Amino acid sequence: MLLRWPFLVFALGLGAVGSVHAQAPPAGVPPPPPPIPTVVATGQAMVRLPPDRAYLTLSTETRAPKPAEAQQRNAQAMAAVQQKLEGALLPKESVRTLAYSLDEEYDFVDNRRRSKGFRAVNTIEVRLDDITRVGEILDLAVAAGATSAQNIRFDLKERQTAERQALRLAVADARARAEAAAAGANATLVAVTRIEEQARAVPVPRPMTAMMRGAAADTAVETPVNAGEIEIEATVLLTATIK
């Protein structure tokens, strides 16, 4: 025991000395280079274009004491609407089903559930590549049996082209801002090192007041629809080196 104790102390001490040398930086390594001067700027742009495409959302709603009867009545109503759309020379691929529901309606009387019958709703979306026909198709569908038109959404056939145009303008705006910031610091722009496109907000469809069946028959005036303009926005974050 007396012979091993000094050896143990020496080993611990040697380990401590070794750990101190391992933490020291190696000799001959140059210091890190100084940071490269940079400028960061945000660019924004908006492109406004008249729409050349529209989407209509139409529904047929029927009620009956029994579910099969409500379903059959709705099938007949929607078939009449789609036949009118086909007669208006709209291609079949421009019409698609969005939703279908069959629900029981009921009231509570004296804490008891009492059925009021069943309600069937079939909702379709109609794409129009000629937006001058929006009012005409709305009136035609309502006269044929559509019970509501929930909204109209306008869009562009070449939306991606407009988005790229807005993006190019946003980058040009960011570069001009970066050059102005560099000039304010008596520096000049050297090279763009990074461009980040910021997330865009998804446009919300424009709402339209519901139109009940028979509204088109009360007047010979076509439903007025104003398309306005489509706004395409782009935002980028640009980083560039300066000197």
Give an account of the 3D structure:
The chain is of the alpha+beta class. The chain has a domain at 52-157 and 203-224: Protein of unknown function (DUF541), domain 2 (Alpha-Beta Plaits). Helix content is 32%, strand content 36%. It contains 4 helices and 8 strands, in the order αββαββαβαβββ. The protein has helices spanning 4-23, 67-87, 134-144, 159-184; strands at residues 38-49, 53-64, 95-109, 112-128, 148-155, 189-197, 206-207, 230-242. A 5-stranded antiparallel sheet has the order 3-4-2-5-7. Helix 2 (67-87) packs antiparallel against helix 3 (134-144). The protein starts with a helix and ends with a strand. Residues 1-21 and 204-217 have low confidence and may be disordered.
